[in-house]
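User: Could you go from structure to sequence for me? I need the amino acid at each position, not a summary. Structure tokens:
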């Protein structure tokens, strides 16, 4: 059962794990707490860094590569003038046939912006959250299964958007 308990000024909801808080509480000074004077942010960051080691970084980066290559393959299979850019755990879908070479080339035309908006809304309906620009980030709890769900959802969404995508040029 989830519990809520108070440690100093920090309130935690979930399993009581004071062993994670005490060492941090002892190490932190007043300047190290977040803007509202709570340890929640610092405890979360400390815990994340404690477990986010080199193997997890490599695994997450590989998952990002898997997502970008899977989306690229999908665009080719569906013959959609789109590409995906990014690095490590981040990616961005562009409704352009080639990856932008600089910041200015990422500018979306009115039609591209509308199409990305449609894609983002339809992906949300599929249970996939993507930033309004077509960008997304993967996280450590994710696996290839979640990326496959993303790619399958993109396939359904892009197929349904075919008339709008054909009108981009």
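Assistant: Here is the amino acid at each position, in order:
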């Amino acid at each position: 059962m989830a519990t809520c308990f108070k440690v100093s000024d920090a309130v935690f909801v979930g399993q009581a794990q004071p062993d994670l808080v005490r060492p941090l509480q002892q190490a932190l000074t007043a300047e190290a707490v977040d803007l509202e004077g709570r340890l929640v942010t610092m405890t979360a960051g400390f815990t994340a860094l404690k477990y986010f080691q080199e193997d997890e970084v490599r695994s997450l980066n590989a998952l990002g590569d898997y997502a970008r290559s899977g989306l690229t393959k999908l665009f080719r299979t569906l013959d959609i003038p789109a590409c995906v850019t990014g690095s490590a755990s981040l990616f961005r879908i562009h409704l352009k046939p080639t990856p932008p070479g600089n910041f200015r080339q990422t500018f979306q035309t009115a039609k591209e912006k509308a199409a990305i908006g449609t894609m983002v809304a339809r992906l949300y309906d599929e249970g996939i959250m993507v930033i309004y620009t077509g960008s997304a980030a993967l996280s450590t709890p994710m696996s290839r299964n979640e990326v496959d769900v993303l790619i399958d959802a993109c396939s359904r969404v892009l197929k349904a958007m075919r008339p709008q995508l054909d009108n981009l040029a």
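One structural detail worth keeping in mind: The first helix runs from residue 18 to 27.
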